[in-house]
Amino acid sequence: MLSFEELVTDRVSEMKLATCFNLPFGQACDNAVVPLGLQVSFDTAKGHLTYLESALN
Fold this sequence. Notes:
Layout: H1 4-13, E1 40-43, E2 48-51
Antiparallel strand pairs: 1-2
């Protein structure tokens, strides 16, 4: 049986979509808020997420 991560990776890799798991944002207390719909640059090798536009316009 595949894990959730393996299942998602298997399905989206055929569509050439980027995926990542276990990032420090979401609903828990120690997680960061991530606005939806903003342009970002994500460097997987360095583990850096850079916002390319402001969330506060």
